[in-house]
Design a protein that fits this description.
This protein is an alpha/beta fold. About 45% of the residues lie in helices and about 20% in strands. It is built from nine helices and seven strands. It has a seven-stranded mixed β-sheet with strand order 3-2-1-4-5-7-6, with helices on both faces. The longest helix has 23 residues. The protein is globular, with a radius of gyration of 17 Å.
Length: about 240
């Protein structure tokens, strides 16, 4: 078990159920908080992760832990796939995404489906690319979730993940520690009205395996070629892998 797998948003219940409840709770304010707390830098991180897929022209894409659909929408606009499915356990988050997709007129390309990311309903080798932004940290079983992502990916297909991580160098490591333990949970609590959600966020960022350790985990899950790129002094890391 990896450390973040034992961290739960609330006190009682199975982690998956708690994560679903948490995201349903914060769905109305999630986008505003996400962009403000990162000073909109998260938009650049997503663009970088999507651009890595551009040379391969994936036509069928699965966006895991899609949330409110920002990553899915960006991928649809940038990569022009025939079909993109956003999968998540939180209907509250996806309902926000559905409204965005409707406003943008992307309903023919993007659809949202409730899925258990540890046991996906899709057949083996269904997708040309699988993506995830800031979501795999919430898996109750990281290896199982990544193995499922590999299973539904076609041979030679690509995985692109953007995930929040902790900086490794002075002084950003120290500054990020102060920010993540004070500003982030306080502001998140005030705006979202959820006392636990953004404290949970900080704890999982600190506990989540990163860098070289994630390379080994991805290979264990079935990926052959793996690489990672630290962005903004290591606050975000992109993991890119080939099946």
């Amino acid at each position: 078990m990896y450390r973040q797998e034992a961290i739960k948003p609330y006190h009682e219940g199975e982690k998956g159920q708690q994560v679903e409840a948490m995201f349903n709770n914060i769905a109305p304010t999630y986008d505003k908080l996400n962009h403000r707390l990162s000073w909109d830098i998260d938009k650049r991180w997503r663009k970088k992760a999507i651009r890595l897929l551009s040379p391969f022209h994936p036509q069928k894409i699965l966006d895991i832990a899609t949330g409110t659909g920002d990553f899915a929408i960006l991928a649809a606009k940038t990569l022009n796939p025939q079909k993109l499915i956003g999968a998540d356990i939180s209907e509250g988050m996806m309902n926000v995404g559905r409204e965005k997709v409707k406003m943008l007129g992307l309903q023919d390309i993007i659809s949202f489906e409730k899925e258990d990311c540890l046991a996906l309903s899709y057949p083996t080798e269904s997708f040309d690319a699988v993506t995830a932004a800031f979501g795999i940290r919430n898996f109750a079983n990281l290896e199982q979730g990544l193995t499922e992502m590999c299973r539904v990916l076609k041979k030679g297909g690509h995985l692109s993940i953007a995930e929040l991580t902790t900086p490794v160098s002075f002084p950003m490591k120290q500054l990020f520690n102060i920010y993540s333990h004070s500003v982030l949970p306080f502001y998140g609590r005030v705006i979202s009205k959820d006392k636990s959600a953004y404290s949970y966020l900080t704890k999982t960022i600190e506990a989540f395996p990163q860098g070289e350790q994630m390379m080994e985990i991805l290979k264990k899950a079935g990926f052959s070629e793996t690489s990672f790129y630290r962005l903004t002094f290591g606050i975000c890391t992109i993991y890119f892998a080939t099946k």
